[in-house]
């Protein structure tokens, strides 16, 4: 049985492992749920500089950006440096029926929380149905008063 030796196979495997770890670490994990007439979005941004957090909405796209700056200690010998630095960004396309002009945002303990209210026109509402008998009675009462 012949075995094929590829000297770059191990290098490719290690590179893929490192690249996928960097991609996973540079993402913004999030939770999204609806609570009453609001959607709540929690985005993990551990170590992000609070002044760099930017949330904006353009058309139907919600964009979240934040930055983690690298540590700048001098005269240190790094033994491990796995925490990603740089700019994080995530975009979400949001559906219609949300009050995008009324989004509120807070940042505490490394978690950005957005509260996105449902637009008034998208909220369920009850429509009262009048019965034909009620309409006749109202018309008859109006004639009696005239």
From TrEMBL:
Domain SHSP: 21-132
Superkingdom of the organism of origin: Bacteria
InterPro entries the UniProt entry points to: A-crystallin/Hsp20_dom, HSP20-like_chaperone, Small_HSP
CDD domains cross-referenced by the UniProt entry: ACD_sHsps-like (cd06464)
Pfam families per the UniProt record, alphabetical: HSP20 (PF00011)
PANTHER family tied to this protein: HEAT-SHOCK PROTEIN 20 FAMILY MEMBER
UniProt similarity note: Belongs to the small heat shock protein (HSP20) family.
Record's protein name: Heat-shock protein Hsp20
Organism for this UniProt entry: Cellulomonas terrae
Lineage: Bacteria, Bacillati, Actinomycetota, Actinomycetes, Micrococcales
């Amino acid at each position: 049985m012949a075995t094929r030796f590829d000297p770059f196979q191990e290098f490719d495997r290690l590179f893929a492992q490192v690249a996928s770890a960097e991609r996973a670490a540079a993402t913004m994990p999030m939770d999204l749920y609806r609570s009453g007439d609001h959607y709540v979005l929690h985005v993990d941004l551990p170590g992000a500089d609070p002044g760099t957090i930017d949330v904006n909405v353009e058309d139907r796209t919600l964009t979240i950006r934040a930055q983690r700056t690298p540590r700048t200690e001098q005269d240190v010998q790094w033994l491990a440096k796995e925490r990603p630095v740089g700019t994080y960004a995530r975009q979400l396309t949001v559906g219609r029926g949300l009050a995008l002009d009324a989004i509120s945002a807070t940042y505490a303990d490394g978690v950005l929380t957005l509260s996105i209210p449902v637009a008034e026109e998208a909220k369920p509402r009850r429509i009262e149905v009048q019965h034909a008998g009620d309409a006749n009675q109202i018309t008859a009462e109006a004639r009696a008063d005239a």
